[in-house]
């Protein structure tokens, strides 16, 4: 058997990949015909593929490579930590320096009294922790019937049984008989798609007030928590209208319901502050983090927990944890990543310079005949494709047909943009420069022009 290296021809790598590798969120049969794009290396915001093409990664991988690719400091820290202590757990009254140091750092960065860290391997299993944690919290408080967690349709909270259940993706629920019992949903604050003629703020308020109606329907004595992303990411970078989060928080407080804010995407500078909760003035009881915590260099996630919740849990043994909770190499790399984000002023630069610059350029795409709206918060942005911008109309073709065509044009123009249905989304590395933003926008406009022509030719307008 050949040793598999970057030097093998692309077609050979693709054939072996198709024969043995099952891809996440992919129709493997279809991919087999085409062959996957093989990425061989990366630096800054640029990927290199096996054909030698330089690709602008406007998604930072899966919204995670906040400091950009190719930082040697992280590799050095990982190697050093592997030599010193490659593994030990934090079960059974043991700890180690990387887990201690990262927990202290997260407590310092996280707002309010979010002072306690329970480690996971990523966002999905951190949300699984949250399900068990909030139910245990209420059981310890003598209210074990408080089990229900309310989430939102079109939310994304992961792909484990728990994460999929918390998420509001119907296509995911359909595979594996989910959600698990005790998860309920309200509608998302997606004004563009669902707001009709209602004024956006009135619509946002209506959607937030569905939470109160749902709590009353279930019975407040049975509700444990509400979970939401500050800005829905995988749902299409949906930004709630002003006033939405204030109303959600008013309702949570009124019924003494815990607020879990899923910051897996919005954490670590993505919105121009350390956390989306700061950008949107949200005060969570528990925060889910992952992705940007290590800039994706190693898998790690966590629940950052308030004094209020941690104090109650401390009274019992929480029978929960993963072999790799607080993995020393992952913690050491995450800590170094946070040092770089902080010492190089990357979060401040996003807020003060590059995010406003990207916003101006992104909104300039709104003049395109194909674009119904442009939205942006910090370094995450979306635009809606439409056949008729005056009506925010959807396409007659199946949702996602036009989005897919547009994504394929981006791909051909060496720009990674994703499509969610017929919305195009970006979430570039936070280190992207003004000049690189110009390139991103040029390629996006070219791809939109080309997709528009194809869609016209196919009679999809
Ligand atoms: N929550 C949110 C908001 C996410 O965007 C994601 C991943 N896209 C997850 C949870 C799941 O994280 P992971 O893939 O690391 O399990």
From TrEMBL:
GO molecular function: transaminase activity
CDD domains hit by this protein: OAT_like (cd00610)
Encoding gene (name): spuC
InterPro entries: Aminotrans_3 (IPR005814), Aminotrans_3_PPA_site (IPR049704), PyrdxlP-dep_Trfase (IPR015424), PyrdxlP-dep_Trfase_major (IPR015421), PyrdxlP-dep_Trfase_small (IPR015422)
Cofactor(s) needed: pyridoxal 5'-phosphate
Record-linked NCBIfam families: PRK07480.1 (NF005682)
Family to which this protein belongs: Belongs to the class-III pyridoxal-phosphate-dependent aminotransferase family.
Protein's UniProt name: Aspartate aminotransferase family protein
Classification via Pfam families: Aminotran_3
PROSITE patterns associated with the record: AA_TRANSFER_CLASS_3
């Amino acid at each position: 058997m050949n040793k598999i290296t970057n030097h093998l021809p692309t077609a050979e790598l693709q054939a072996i990949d198709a024969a043995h590798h099952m891809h996440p969120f992919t129709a493997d049969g279809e991919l087999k015909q085409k062959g996957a794009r093989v990425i061989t290396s990366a630096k800054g915001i640029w990927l290199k593929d096996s054909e030698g093409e330089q690709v602008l990664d406007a998604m930072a991988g899966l919204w995670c490579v906040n400091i950009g690719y190719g930082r040697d400091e992280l590799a050095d820290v990982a190697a050093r930590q592997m030599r010193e202590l490659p593994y030990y757990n934090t079960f059974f009254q043991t700890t180690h320096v990387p887990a201690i140091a990262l927990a202290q750092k997260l407590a310092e960065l996280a707002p309010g009294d979010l002072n306690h860290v329970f480690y996971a391997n990523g966002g999905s299993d951190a949300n699984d922790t949250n399900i068990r944690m909030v139910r245990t919290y209420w059981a310890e408080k003598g209210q074990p019937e408080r089990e229900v967690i309310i989430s939102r349709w079109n939310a994304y909270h992961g792909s484990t049984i728990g994460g999929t259940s918390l998420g509001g993706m119907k296509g995911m629920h359909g595979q594996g008989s989910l959600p698990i019992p005790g998860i309920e949903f309200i509608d998302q604050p997606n004004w563009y798609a669902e707001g009709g003629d209602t004024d956006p703020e009135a619509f946002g308020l209506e959607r937030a007030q569905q939470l109160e109606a749902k709590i009353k329907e279930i019975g407040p004595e049975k509700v444990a928590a509400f979970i939401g992303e500050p800005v829905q990411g995988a749902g299409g970078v949906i930004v709630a209208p002003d006033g939405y989060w204030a109303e959600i928080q008013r309702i949570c407080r009124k019924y003494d319901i815990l607020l879990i804010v899923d910051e897996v995407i919005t954490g670590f500078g993505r919105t121009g502050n350390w956390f989306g909760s700061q950008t949107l003035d949200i005060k969570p009881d528990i925060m889910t983090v992952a992705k940007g915590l290590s800039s994706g260099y190693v898998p790690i996630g966590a629940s950052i927990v308030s004094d209020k919740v941690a104090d109650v849990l401390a009274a019992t043994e929480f029978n929960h944890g993963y072999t790799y909770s607080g993995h020393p190499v992952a913690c050491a790399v995450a800590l170094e990543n946070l040092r770089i984000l902080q010492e190089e002023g990357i979060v401040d630069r996003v807020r003060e310079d590059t995010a406003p610059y990207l916003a101006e350029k992104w909104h300039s795409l709104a003049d395109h005949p194909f674009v119904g709206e442009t939205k942006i918060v910090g370094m995450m942005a979306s635009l809606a494709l439409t056949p008729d911008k005056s009506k925010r109309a959807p396409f007659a073709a199946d949702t996602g047909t036009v989005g897919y065509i547009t994504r394929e044009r981006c791909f051909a123009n060496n720009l990674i943009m994703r499509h969610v249905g017929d919305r195009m989304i970006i979430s570039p590395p936070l280190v992207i420069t003004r000049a690189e933003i110009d390139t991103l926008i040029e390629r996006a406009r070219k791809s939109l022009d080309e997709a528009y022509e194809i869609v016209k030719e196919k009679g999809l307008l």
